[in-house]
Amino acid sequence: MEIDGLVVALAASVGACVGGGWWAVRRMVQARYLLDTPTSKIRSAAQGYVELYGVLQEHKASLQARLTGKPCLWWRFKVEEYSSSDKRSAWRVVKSGSSEACFLLSDGTGECLVDPKGAEIRPATKEVWQSDQAPLTMGSGGLFDWFSSGKQYRYTEERLHAGEPLYAIGDFHTRGGGQQGLDLSAAQGTVIREWKGDYGRLLERFDSDGNQQLDESEWNRVRLAAQLEAEDRHSVQSLQPAQHQMGKPSQAQPFILSSHGEDQLARQFHWQALAGAVVCLLGALALTWLLRNALP
After folding, report:
1. Nearest-5° Cα angle at 69, 65 to 72
2. Which of 34, 162, 201, 275 is paired with 101 by a 20 to 30 Å CA distance?
3. Rounded to the nearest 5 degrees, what angle is found at the Cα of 193, between the Cα atoms of 187 and 197?
4. Entry pTM
5. 14 with 132: CB under 8 angstroms?
6. Which three-class secondary structure state does DSSP give residue 33?
7. Contacts 24+ apart (CB under 8 A), 26-33
8. Rounded Cα distance, 195 and 189, in Å
């Protein structure tokens, strides 16, 4: 085997082995998170990593999907151009994107605002079509203007709609409603930093001797006033209605939004993990054969 071909074969084998193994482990871990995390009700969900199941609702105004203009709560699109040569033909992605607007999830006990940024989203609605019209620019309504082209394009659009069921697993937290504890030291520090932003006003309030500096006793008054201000702010916030939110976890935990239920997702992840393991095994076998037979 020529050296260039050998290098390519070795790289492909190592890539298949490592990539397949990583994918298998990742999907197995995600499946375990889905199966081991109990479904919570929004009203009584604990703060932190939770699993919810409910129905999608509009948060503000509905969106228009980028390609079709259909009303929805979330969209993702992909435009591919077909390229052909003597050696190979393939679809090449020329444009893609997704919306980032929040939407509401309701389960009958409450509503949770879901921020889709960073989520693996698996919607039920997916449209795919081909055309010789290419997207040129974005029009005033946020949709693409089109022009005729001799090339072939493939369009893919996925959407979430109001009234559809949604499975969600991610980081859940609540503001207001008396459920948020007070970290007095951190809250006091936040108030002091805000006051330092207008240092002239700070001196006007606490510089008793008028020397344009704050001595230790004056700083003690600042700290006490900031503590009282932080407690007052927390009291006001606690009286506000509870606002539940879900977003991407800060730790390496899956953040998944899906039109399909937990059991179906777990089965898909297990099959994908098996496929990754097969690819890893084939890569390892190919690498072993190359090391034994192809190397001088």
Report:
1. 45
2. 34
3. 145
4. 0.70
5. no
6. helix
7. 26/273, 26/276, 27/269, 27/270, 27/272, 27/273, 27/276, 28/269, 28/270, 28/273, 29/254, 30/254, 30/256, 30/269, 31/265, 31/266, 31/269, 31/270, 31/273, 33/169, 33/253, 33/254
8. 10
